[in-house]
Amino acid sequence: MTALTEPTPEHLAELAGCLDAGGVLDAAADAAQPYLVEPRGLIRGRAAVILKPASTAQVAAILRLCHGHRIGVVPYGGGTGLVGGQVSPEGSGAGPRPVVLSLERMNRIRAVLPSDGAIIAEAGVVLADLQAAASGAGRLFPLSLAAEGSCRIGGNLATNAGGVQVLRYGTARDLCLGLEAVLADGSVLAGLKPLRKDNTGYDLRHLLIGSEGTLGVITAASLKLFPRPGEVVTAMLAVPSPDSAVTLLQTLREGLGDGVSAFELIAGQGIAFLAEFHPSRPDPLGGRPDWRVLVEITGPSGAGLTGRAETMLAELFEAGLASDGVLAANEAQRAHMWWMRETLPECNRRVGPVASHDISLPLSRIGRFIAEARDVVDGFGPSLRVNCFGHLGDGNLHYNVFPPEGGRVAGCRALAGPVRTAIHDLVHAHGGSFSAEHGIGRMKTGDLETYGDPAKLAAMRAIKAALDPRGILNPGAVLAG
Amino acid sequence: MTALTEPTPEHLAELAGCLDAGGVLDAAADAAQPYLVEPRGLIRGRAAVILKPASTAQVAAILRLCHGHRIGVVPYGGGTGLVGGQVSPEGSGAGPRPVVLSLERMNRIRAVLPSDGAIIAEAGVVLADLQAAASGAGRLFPLSLAAEGSCRIGGNLATNAGGVQVLRYGTARDLCLGLEAVLADGSVLAGLKPLRKDNTGYDLRHLLIGSEGTLGVITAASLKLFPRPGEVVTAMLAVPSPDSAVTLLQTLREGLGDGVSAFELIAGQGIAFLAEFHPSRPDPLGGRPDWRVLVEITGPSGAGLTGRAETMLAELFEAGLASDGVLAANEAQRAHMWWMRETLPECNRRVGPVASHDISLPLSRIGRFIAEARDVVDGFGPSLRVNCFGHLGDGNLHYNVFPPEGGRVAGCRALAGPVRTAIHDLVHAHGGSFSAEHGIGRMKTGDLETYGDPAKLAAMRAIKAALDPRGILNPGAVLAG
User: Which of chain A's residues have a Cβ under 8 Å away from the Cβ of B116?
Assistant: First the structure.
């Protein structure tokens, strides 16, 4: 790959010529600053200009120019990514400033096709708006995550977002029937057919999904819709251990089939954080158990789901798989249980983690991993606190390490790297992944080099060079160089 | 890409040196002939030698040599593919003879991991054996198709096979957690982790799945297991039209959720073929309706599924969505209904089609397409017979055109090409696919050129050149040249 260049004033004028007046934002303007920060303030970004195309044709024109002039392009969705994929950092050796390409103005729902079980949305549609459009047509679009009020579907697809309903409905990848995308040279992949089966050549859809804007810019997607569940059972259950939570999940799935749509593990430490920052909100469970799960079971109405779920839960208590539990009796109680789960990341940010890990493990290794990881953390300091929570049904844990009670993260800064390495080493030893759902971005390129399969990395580099020979797309993301 | 060469005697000796004695089969031997025919006799193949590696290391050694000497390699699974992907044809302009690489000796189940919901199988495991291994562990591996007694999982993945349970469980692609594969240069991708979520770089798994052996040779896979359904309801229902069948499906899915696991459309013509070749086997429905569906609904035991399904079916009759119907009262009746569905391809072969089409359409277009396609066929001859059947729930039809009653296919041979083009044109006009589940192979490379998205084709060529720069893998398949 040849070196990139910084756009000259002439290039910037050419780029502005691709767009209408509302499409160009000076990178020095106040309004541009939100595009240039990582959401937790971990990276300060930079750009030559922020471009906001309003159509696929405008995206194509921009990429054609950037390809011609060898200008880097950082695609930008809702800006909520947690691995720096959307921010090109300042600093020495950062190279020429790129263009930030925000898809926010491409926010139309192009078609709602309930009888095809599909919806066609542009990349800039906010996830919550997409959910609402599906709901308005009497259907469910199941992708659901804490950032849904601001993340955009193009970014969700580019990063293969996960969230709380993966257990039943899969990740963003599994919800996508087809893509429209602009490749590095400005050519447009037109793949929006709402077909369930189409074996006509290589699956570029799946190659682009999860490639974090390094192989193409997703401009629109054809997505799956599902029947809306008529009945929802939500429960919070205290469990003796993470392993018993895994057994509990398997028992529920055997008894209720695909109906188990969410299964979230929550550690007592997370509840302690909630109590610290939101003392007026009650805990439905008494005695602050070390481990609990938030379970949601959904199904069509008239299927007697609530009764069956209640019977099963009673059996779980008898079998010792749960020691306490509360069923949400109404929507307010259900919303409160989910509020608890969804507020954990905010609490984590307020405490300030020494190190955070978005990991996945084979389900059979979860219990052993959690025990061994605690030993690893103890080796750095037995009073370090751990908030381990996440999408247990997918084997996906958010394993976050915090300073001791009353301590501040500043005092532990030197531990960040070593803790992170030790935890990732342990994950690797258990056959797990150091990035379950957040991706690689710019923060985990080193982990990919360390833990990635060398043959896979070589193939990834070959594909990157084939589809983006000048390396303009999201330079520095996923593949470090 | 540079030209391939035919293996010299020295090359063949080198290749044989990679294998044990049982691994080399002379291409002229009788035992080699089954590897050199298309299952319906449509293509006569050729090879310099048949190689049967027993390990991933042997596959890697073979590919390293073939890459070095520029020898073509045709990967071979169960040989049941229907688009010629597994057979390099004889004839003028065929180029140098390739090596046929059969994975049949790599037929070990490497691990059954019920608590991880996964099974790890080598590419040569016969699909039915894989289903049995899952069943032996109290789990379900849901991929199911007519060829399951002889097709092999490596071929199923290489072609992204579909079958009768896609509606609920997805295609082969959706059932795969990870792959081990050998790339053109002999490097080995080691991706067998049984993880549900792993966002660490480009998804090479999905790129290899459906690439029909042109980007790499799949040697093993980590596959999803599901709880075995405790209750199964199977019904055959006469429907007034294909459109009412689609409405019926949507109504069932709204009422029963994900429980609808199969939904097959069968035309009266197919039943007429069955009666001709299997006159002693009864039709559960009287009056030979023009259209019927075979529906299967599954769920956990104790969920009262049978009762709910019976109630729903009664409502469907009242709503006029079904005019007649039979519920399988026991396993023998269920097996008979499925035998009817699974025997249709055999009947089609015995009649001898003028043209066959494996197509998919948006569900909302099914009814219109079927009506318009009959008009198209009538334009070639109103007495031509049509057997239209398939996986309606996925929008996937097998649309087969036959000579008039008493006529022979020989008399209609000149119609084959024009009928095929006219049907594929109509599919394209309705936003459908000319290959829903069979793939491209060597028989549909022209269709891919005609109907494929030019930007997609260019990207496919770039990826092929990047991963197989010498073009040794399955030359002539998918991309014609």
Answer: 362-364
DSSP assigned state of A359: E
Handedness of CA A249, A252, A258, A260 (dihedral sign): negative
Rounded CA separation A378/A382 (Å): 4
Which residues of chain B register pLDDT less than 50?
Answer: none
B219-234: pLDDT as tens digits: 999 999 999 999 999 9
Residue A35 CB contacts under 8 Å (≥ 6 apart), including other chains: A25, A45, A47, A50, A76, A79, A100, A102
> Which residues on B lie below 8 Å from A116 (Cβ)?
362-364
Cβ contact B308–A303 (<8 Å)? yes
- Provide the 3-class DSSP secondary structure of residue A121: strand
pTM over 0.90: yes
Q: Is the dihedral of CA A217, A222, A226, A228 positive or negative?
A: positive
The residue to which tokens 């709204």 are assigned? B254
| pLDDT of the residue at A2 | 59
| Residue of chain A minimizing CA distance to B453 | A190
Kindly determine whether residue B197 and residue A437, on different chains, have CB atoms separated by under 8 Å.
yes
Selection from A244, A234, A261 nearest residue A322 by Cα:
A244
Among A62, A308, A11, A15, residue whose Cα is nearest residue A185: A62
Contact A200 B303 (CB under 8 A): no
Contact B439 A396 (CB under 8 A): no
CA–chain centroid gap for A129, Å, is 17
Q: What is the CA radius of gyration of chain B?
A: 23
| Minimal CA separation from B180 to chain A, in Å | 11
Query: In angstroms, rounded to a whole number, what is the distance separating the alpha carbons of residues A443 and A440?
Result: 6
